[in-house]
Amino acid sequence: MPQTVSPPHEKERTSERIRRRAKELFDRVRASGVAIDFPFPDPMTLRSFSLGEVAEILGVSHSYLRQLSIDGLGPTPELGTAGRRSYTLRQINELRAYLASARPKDALKFYPRRREGEKLQIISVGGSASTTTAFYLVQGLALQGFRVLAVDLDRRGSFSGMFGYTASTTPVYNKSIYAALRCDDDRASIRTVIRPTHFDGLDIVPGSIELRRFEEERLRRYLSGASRNPDANSRLVSAIEEVEGNYDVVVIAGAPVRDGLGPVALEAATGVLVTVHPQLDDVASTAMSLSIFSEYVRRIEEAGKSEDYDFFKFLVTRHDPRDVAEQETIALLRGSLGDDLLTAIVWESDAIGYAGLKNRSLYELSAGAVGRSAYEQAMETLNSVNAEVMDIISEVWGRPPIYVSQASRSTTAGKAKSRSKRSRS
C-alpha cells in the first residue's frame, strides 16, 4: 500500500522561532504575576534642611527666616535639639509661595515656575558622566522650586535606579517610558508611567529593559527600508505634551547619540547639554557623536521639520584641576566651542563618588557624611553648573539672570567658577 505523503509545511524561519520563544518566555513571566510593577522595596526619603541651608537655597538672611518662624509666618519648621529649626523640601516650597506673595517684586526669584507664554524646557543630557550630571541637575532644579519631570531612556535604568526604581533586568509590562513610545495597541498615556520621587516637585518616568523592544522595532523598520518613520521619534514629543502643564522643565537622560533612542531624545529636546571629560580620547569620541548627531538633524530637516534648539551647550565633567594635560584640553575646548562651553566645570570628587556608591546625591547627604571640606568643594562645582543652566533657562524665558549671582553669594556654591560669569551678568 502506498504511503500517504503529508503536504509540506513552510519551514519556520530562525528569526520567527527566536521571536516566538522570547514571547513565550515573557508571557509566562507575566502570567506568574512576577514584577508587574517597579520594585520599590526601600522607599527613599529626603532629609530635612537646616535653617541656614534653607536661607541659602532661598537667597535670604538667616535672621529674616528665623523671624518669619517666630512670627508664625509660612510653614512651621520642626524644632530639634537646642531649638534648631529644620524644613522639609515641601515646606521650603511652601515658603517660596508665601514669599512670592509677600514680596511680589521678588516673586520670580522665590517662585520660578513657568508663567503664561513661557514654553516648557526639555533638556537632553548626553555624553561622559551624563547620567550623574542629569541626576544633580533635576535635583538642583527641584530644590530651586522648579517642577521637574525626569525621563530615563536607558534600557538599563541607571538613572531610574538613582531614585530607587531598580528594574533594569526585571521584566515589567508597560511600566516604563516604553509604554508611551510603542506603536501597537498597548501604547499607553505617559501619565500611567510617571512616578513620584522623594524630592517634592520632581517626578520620573523610569527606563527599563522594555526599551529593547523599541530598539527592535526601529531595527525592523530600518531593514524593511523605512529608515526613518516620522512618527517614531515624535511619540515622545506627543507624550510630553500630554503633561506639559504640570512641569516647567523636562530632563531626558540615558539616550546616547549612537543608540537607537538617541534621535528620540534629540527631536523632543528644546535644549541640549553635552558632557565631556577633558581628555583627548573623550573629546574625539564627542566629536564622533556630534557627527552622527548632525546626520540625525539633517534627516529631521529633510523631513520638513526645524530643529532650532534654544541652546546647545557643552559641560566639562570629572576634571582633575591638578592635571596639566586636562587643563590644556579644556583650553582646547574653550578655544573651539567659545561661549557654547559652560563657564562652570565639575571637578573630580571623592565626595560625589561616595554619594554615588550610596545611590544618593550630595544634596541628600549632610556635610558630616563625607567631610565638610570635600562636601563644600564638590557643592561649589555642582551648584555653579546648575546655576548656569538655570540662568540659560531664564534667558530663554526672557527673564534676567539671577542664579549665578545668587550662587556666588552662597558658602556652598561656585565661588571661583561664578566669578568670571558674574562679571558678565
List strands and helices in order, with pairings.
Layout: H1 14-31, E1 49-50, H2 51-58, H3 62-70, E2 78-79, E3 85-87, H4 89-102, H5 107-110, E4 121-127, H6 130-143, E5 148-152, H7 158-161, H8 178-181, E6 195-196, E7 202-205, H9 211-223, H10 230-242, E8 249-253, H11 262-268, E9 271-276, H12 280-302, E10 311-319, H13 324-337, E11 341-347, H14 350-357, H15 367-370, H16 372-396, H17 403-408, H18 415-422
Parallel strand pairs: 4-8, 4-9, 5-7, 5-8, 9-10, 10-11
Antiparallel strand pairs: 1-3, 2-3, 6-7
Report on the architecture of this protein.
- GO terms for molecular function: DNA binding.
- Residues 126-280 form the AAA domain.
- Pfam families: AAA_31 (PF13614), MerR_1 (PF13411).
- This is Replication protein RepA.
- The structure is a single chain.
- By secondary structure, the chain is an alpha/beta fold.
- The protein has 18 helices and eleven strands.
- It has helices at residues 14-31, 51-58, 62-70, 89-102, 107-110, 130-143, 158-161, 178-181, 211-223, 230-242, 262-268, 280-302, 324-337, 350-357, 367-370, 372-396, 403-408, 415-422, and strands at 49-50, 78-79, 85-87, 121-127, 148-152, 195-196, 202-205, 249-253, 271-276, 311-319, 341-347.
- The strands form two sheets. It has an eight-stranded mixed beta sheet, with helices on both faces.
- It starts with 13 loop residues before the first helix and ends with a helix.
- 39% of the residues are buried.
